[in-house]
Amino acid sequence: MDGVIADFASAYRDVEERLFGRASSRAEPPEVEAAAEEAAAEEAAAEEAAAAVEGTAEGAAQAAGAAQTPADVPFYEQRRRRDAIWAAIHDMPDFWTTLKPLDPRAVARIHEMMLRLGWEVFFITQRPATAGDTAQRQTQRWLQAQGFDLPSVLVIAGSRGTAAAAVRLDYLVDDTPQNCLDVAADSQATPILIVPARDMTIEKSAARLNIIVLRSVGEALDLLEKASAERARPSLLRRFSNLLRRS
Q1: Which of 8, 21, 39, 211 is most deeply buried (CB count within 10 A of its CB)?
Q2: Distance, CA of 149 to CA of 154 (rounded, Å)
Q3: Which pLDDT score is estimated for 235?
Q4: Per DSSP, what are the bridge partners of residue 171?
Q5: CB–CB of 126/155 below 8 Å?
Q6: Is residue 16 scored above 80 in pLDDT?
Q7: Predicted TM-score (pTM) of this structure
Q8: Do residues 78 and 129 both lie within one domain?
Q9: Is 109 found in the same domain as 63?
C-alpha cells in the first residue's frame, strides 16, 4: 500500500510540519512503527511478568511505563519527533483514509486488469491502528474510493514472504528492499521493488537476488500485463491444436 499506491510520506511530513513548523526527517514505513509497537508490547509483558514473579505490583507498573519511554534511545531528538508524529497519527480518526494516491489512475487500473485478466489481488499492509475504524476497514474504504470494489486487504505482522507463501502469490510489488528480500527467500513469488529514483547500490543488490526493480506502480502493471499475456498464450495454442486434431 504505502509507497506503492498510497502517499504516506507526504501525509507524515504534513503532520511533522504541523507539530514542528518544518519537516526534517524521512518518513519511516508504517511497518517500522508496527514492529516497534509489537516489540514494546512484548518487552512490557516480559517486564510485568518478571515483576510479578518478584511479587511487587508497583515494580510491574514501573516496568510497563519504562518500556514505553524512549528516553534511552540514541539520537533522542529524532526519536522524540518520530514518537510525537506517530502519536498524532494514532489519534487522528481514520488517518489511513486521508492519504493521497501516488498515481491517481493506478488503483482503478488494477481493478480493470483484475477483471479483464482474471487476477486475484491482495493488498498487503502492516499499518498500525489509529482512532476510528480498524486499519483494514480504513484501507478497504480508501481503495473503494479509488475505484476498487470488494478489495481483499491483509493487515499482517512480520515477514511479507510468509504472507506471500500463505496466499500463493505469483508477484508482490513493494517499495521496501527488506520486504522483497523476505519474499524472495520465503516464497515462490517474484518480488518487484519500486525505486522511484535511480540507486545503483540497491539495483545491483536486487539483480543478484532476482528482484525486479522498476520506477513506479505503472511500470509494474505494464510488466504484469505482459506476464499475464505470456502465461495465457500457451493455453491458447493448446486450444488451437486441439481444434485442429478434432477437424
Answers
A1: 8
A2: 15
A3: 58
A4: 190
A5: yes
A6: yes
A7: 0.78
A8: no
A9: no
